[in-house]
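Tutorial handout. Part one gives the primary structure; part two gives the three-dimensional structure as C-alpha cells.
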Amino acid sequence: MGLHNLKAASGARRKQKRVGRGNGSGWGGTAGRGHKGQLSRSGASIRVGFEGGQMPLQRRMPKRGFKNYCRKEFAVVHIGDLVRFEQNAVVDPAAMFEAGLIRRVTDLVKVLADGELDKAIVVHAQGFSQAAKKKIEAAGGKAEIVGKVRKAAKSTP
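Part two.
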C-alpha cells in the first residue's frame, strides 16, 4: 500500500453542492442566497465584528488598564536551582536551557535568591536580585551581567 492508492472510506466524502443550475435541482433561482440584501450580491463580504453600522461590541465595552509594550519578560531562575552545576562551572543561559531551567535559549534570565548555594560558580545572566548577587559572591562565585537589557527611552515633548 502506498500514498498513491489510499482512498477515503465510503460515505466519508460528499459530492460538491452545485447551486444555480435550475429549479429541478432544488437550488435554482436565488441559489440559496434569498432575495435582495447585501449577502445576495456577488462579491459581498462583511468584515469580522461589523454589526451593520451599530456601535460594535468591542467599542461598547469599557476599557481598563494599560499594557506596556516595552515591558521585558524575564525567565526566573532561583539560586537553589543552580546547585546542580559543578564547582567553578560557567552557567550561562545556554547551560540553563540544557539543564531545563528555562524554556528558550533566547530568554532574558533573572536570578533570584530563593534557596542556598554551596559551590563557587560563575553565573552569566541579564539580571540579578541584590540578595542573589550576595549569595553567589558569598559562596566564592561571580555574578556577571551579560547583554544588558535596554530600558525604553523617555520621550520629551
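Part three, for discussion. The domain at 74-145 is CATH 3.100.10.10 (Ribosomal Protein L15; Chain: K; domain 2). The two ends are 72 Å apart (CA to CA).
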